[in-house]
From TrEMBL:
<feature type="domain" description="FAD-binding">
    <location>
        <begin position="42"/>
        <end position="384"/>
    </location>
</feature>
<dbReference type="InterPro" id="IPR036188">
    <property type="entry name" value="FAD/NAD-bd_sf"/>
</dbReference>
<dbReference type="InterPro" id="IPR002938">
    <property type="entry name" value="FAD-bd"/>
</dbReference>
<keyword id="KW-0560">Oxidoreductase</keyword>
<dbReference type="GO" id="GO:0004497">
    <property type="term" value="F:monooxygenase activity"/>
</dbReference>
<keyword id="KW-0503">Monooxygenase</keyword>
<protein>
    <submittedName>
        <fullName>FAD-dependent monooxygenase</fullName>
    </submittedName>
</protein>
<dbReference type="Pfam" id="PF01494">
    <property type="entry name" value="FAD_binding_3"/>
</dbReference>
Amino acid sequence: MLSFNRMMTALNLLEDWNPIKEALHMLKSDRKKEMWMTETNKAIIIGGGIAGKLAARVLSDKFKEVIILEKDQKSMDPTPRKGARQGEHLHALLHAGQYGMEELFPGITEKFYSSGAIKINSTMDLSWYHHGGWKLRYDGGYTTTLQTRPHLEYHIEQYIEQIPNITSKYQVTVKNFLYQTDEYRINGVEIQLPNKKTEQIYADLIVDTSGATSLTSTWLHKKGITIPQEKVEIGLTYVSQKFNLPEDPKRDWKIKLIYPNPPQEKVGGTISKVEGDQYIVTMIGYLNAISEKEIIKKDDGFLELAKKLPKLDIYHELLHATPLTKPSIYRVPQIKWKRIDKVKAFPSGLLLMGDTICRIDPVFGQGMSIAVLEALALQKILQEQKGSLQETITAFHNKVAKIIAPIWKMVITEDFRYPDIIGKKPIELKIQQWYAKQIYLLSTEKRDIYDHFIKVMNLVEPISFLMKPRILGSVLRLRRIFVK
């Protein structure tokens, strides 16, 4: 009796017989589906950051072996990683991200709190100056967790280490993809070990979560595969520093956010309590408004920067604060959304996730929460998908585009308030900016509108939530219609 492979070879010789070619294609497809659904399989994840860990957690339910390849050393405690230069700056896990994180890692929220993270009332403990006005403060019934990124990432890693079919390899650099030209498929990676030796690892699925400068972009370009992109040049600079603050009975907040009012103001800042009874202060400046040299060369450079904020609240706090670290600087010249969902000739076996697909403006604190939403989407698709592995990948990339689209639209609506920011502007931009501005202003005096706005900002509700007839009526009734 002929083996399956020998039968394939024999049938492939009959190139001109279309009925046999069609039957053969169906036979191959059915066999691949059967293999995907029943055989032992392996997944490789490039990048052991938050998105990589989230992907590993989800894939461990479906794949019998999951390998994380991380270029950094293993973290022995919650300290910033060299490969995550943004780790020293303020991060936020929005409500949708926090709920999703708990769903993926049951009990992790309590782990955060028991090891020092700060639990706050989202609307009571946040003091927020936004577009020229202070938001209302009240008990809205929502909670938020304040912590540093290393603290959050460390606890995720502790959870990952308890999953027996996940293996992490550290100080490993992925040099190239292993590619099957005849099947147009990536089936592994070539890695460089700490001793500089190279090794090849094969797998059914390769997941790239290594970030905006990933191997995938370069590799696809060399193969002549063009990825449509949406790109906006924002010239953003982050400067952060940790402090101890003296006790102050008048301090009635846990986090204070001073947002610039575009287009006149380009510098904003946030001061947030984090674990260890410390405070992290992060300054942001659009369009290269922050001089890195002044921050580094001057002993009081960070304090002088705080003087440039629209309100001097953070400056006054820092006058009596004790620095715990030196200022750390991180630049985000541009934000970029790679439209993988629009690439028709995308190679099989490769899935992208996190910043590898979309690097969003970090000022809005949505990056980690988007990664959580993507992980939940992947989990659902894996649970429901009955087709081939490639159909699963395609379905995921299409779903990610639907997750990112409204968030991207919301972010660039704000970024384009600065006329000098370069990028493709939506036709309806002026109307969107006007309407959003009214929501911001009304949320300083109308609790129900602020409550709706908070849910949208925290990715719990879609942006259409702010277009409810009652909200729309408030905007049109209380604010004179004009377009600046």
